[in-house]
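pipeline stage [seq->struct] | target=peptidylprolyl isomerase | organism=Mesobacillus campisalis | residues=288
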Amino acid sequence: MGKRQLLMAVVALGILNILTLSFFLSRPDWRAGKETVATVGKEEITRQEWLGEMEARYGEETLRDLVDQKVIEKMAAKYKIKVSDTDVEQELTMYKVLYGPQGQNFDDEQWQKQVKLGLMLEELLTKDAVFSDEELEEYYRQNMSLFEIPAAYRLSQIIVKTEEEAQQTIKELEEGSSFAALAMERSLDEFSANQGGELGFVSEESERVEPQVLAEVRGIKEQSWSRPIKLETGYGIVYLHEKVEGKKYAFSEVKDRVRRQMAVEQMDLPVSARNFWSEAEVSWFYGK
């Protein structure tokens, strides 16, 4: 995995950490330490015990992510680093296709903020890198696949054993039943069933679904379901939440990204905001 791909993966993981923490801290009763959240026989597990265990497992990592955010913002202001909305949109689309976890809403402001922070960090780390236009264009020509987004589809699925069951499922959907509820109730694919049938984004190049599924979803509209699809394991019904059109970016559209990519690959430093902690005068709960 290249340094830039590593940075993208790290940012995606950081987003999940922040979203998870935000979920718990946003609940109005999260401080109610003596509230019972589970029982085993007569033994109680309190919210305080639960949150304490979460902090022990994930506290340092999550706090580091929060500190990194503040460091990036402070250093970006110091060095007058800015990224365009176009760059953020391009990167967000790439995250959707490559790292889109199941059930996540990529229109959420938190995702957009984290993607923007990732780009700002790249700009900070590579702010002194200079390349000629010839060097940039040559890199682009040799690595064009890095600047292409394959067509992708955010899908949910229900897998049943027979065509009759599939037709019955479609009848219930047409009568107003929830796709997610039906997936959890009857889908044979346990992993996606537990997510309400959600598969996340599946690209044209993916082997996660059978080819006939992709052939079918190409012909349906967003926010609609397919007819029964014959599969190796039975019959499937897929729901198309969203389609991302494939695109090949021209050099002029990604010139700044090419420069960052080249610079990141040549860096001796780790791809991390911790490179700026000293300059930002960070002190934190976990020491050095």
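stage status: PASS
auto-comment: The CA atoms of residues 2 and 135 lie 19 Å apart. The chain has a mean pLDDT of 87.
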